[in-house]
Amino acid sequence: MMHLHYRERGEGPPLVMLHGLFGSADNLGGLARILAKEFHTITVDLRNHGRSPHSDRMSYSLMAEDVCALMDQLGLERAHVFGHSMGGKVAMQLALDCPSRVNKLVIADIAPVSYRHHHAAILDGMQAVAEAAPSSRKGAEDILRRYESEPAILSFLMTNWRRDTNGNWGWRHNLAAIRSEYAHIAAGNSGSVFKGDVLFLRGGLSHYIGAEHRDAILDLFPNATVRTIEGVGHWLHAEKPDMVARAVSRFLTA
Q1: Which of 133, 24, 119 is nearest to 143 (CA)?
Q2: Is residue 101 scored above 80 in pLDDT?
Q3: Where is 185: in which H helix or E strand?
Q4: Residue 252 and which of 150, 219, 221, 241 are 20 to 30 A apart at CA?
Q5: Is residue 131 very low, low, confident or very high in pLDDT (cuts 50, 70, 90)?
Q6: d(CA 188, CA 114)
Q7: Average pLDDT of the residues in 103-132
Q8: How many CA atoms lie within 13 A of 103 on its CB side?
């Protein structure tokens, strides 16, 4: 059993929060701090990310099992679950595989479908950084910028370039496993229908949830509703955390 790293904030109904690919619990910190006024938030580092252990396997069923094991560890029979991007797929798989453990589900800007491989350049850039092994954050960023020039994405990715306990620089996540298991990460969700209440939040400027995904969503989550957060892209929780927090709170307390 994998023991995931996590952080707890606040009191109230438990709310497990799961980050996206290349992220960590820290990336949900701003949203969690707002929601902690009403909920007992548990922000989690998924396997091969953040401070959680590494593994060479990364399917959604395994990652859902990890989260279920963490809930057991914390004595949580049931909880609300929020997931962004890859974390949204983990959250959906948890609801499909273990519906009795999930109260309400909030999925941020992802559908339960397969997506094309669109991280190839980023993965190549990270590999180039790892092979060059620069001894500074600036050195790593200069290399990675050749592969990803968007400032916001570059800044987000660079949060993973850290010193280890021996003072050596490296990627905090398991780059080798992410590369080898990417087909599983890009895959869609499957399983028995989850009949609980589900809110899909989509960024108005994002393409991850579109009209073409409606049937796939309702096939697995018949009680799902979709709400658009206007003026934001895929990282809606970082761009408008107050608005996203209000939408999450209203849905979970309704």
Answers
A1: 133
A2: yes
A3: helix 182-186
A4: 219
A5: very high
A6: 4
A7: 95
A8: 16
The answer for residues whose C-beta is within 8 angstroms of residue 205's C-beta and 6 or more apart is 231, 232, 233
pLDDT above 80 for 1: no
Structure token digits, residue 220? 């697995």
Token digits of residue 14: 């438990």
**How many CB atoms are closer than 10 A to CB 244?**
26
108, β-bridge pairs: 84, 201
How far apart are the C-alpha atoms of 191 and 201, rounded to whole Å? 22
* Element counts in the chain: helices (H) and strands (E): 11, 9
Assess contact for 112 and 189: CB atoms under 8 A: yes
Q: What is the pTM of this model?
A: 0.96
> Residue 152: pLDDT band by 50, 70, 90 thresholds?
confident
Distances (CA, A) of 141 to 39, 135, 153, 169: 37, 11, 11, 12
CA dist 120 and 56 (Å) reads 19
Q: Which amino acid is at 132?
A: A
Q: Tens of pLDDT along 176-206?
A: 999 999 999 999 999 999 999 999 999 999 9
Give the pLDDT confidence score for residue 91 in this predicted structure. Answer: 98
Q: Indicate which residues carry an active-site annotation.
A: 85, 234
Task: Report the alpha-carbon angle 183-187-193, nearest 5.
Answer: 155
On whether the CB atoms of residues 177 and 54 are closer than 8 A, the answer is yes
- Residue 143 Rama label (left phi>0; alpha psi -120 to 50; beta): alpha
* Domains of the chain as residue ranges with CATH: 6-114+187-253 (3.40.50.1820), 120-180 (no CATH)
Whether residue 127 is predicted with pLDDT greater than 80 in this model: the reply is yes
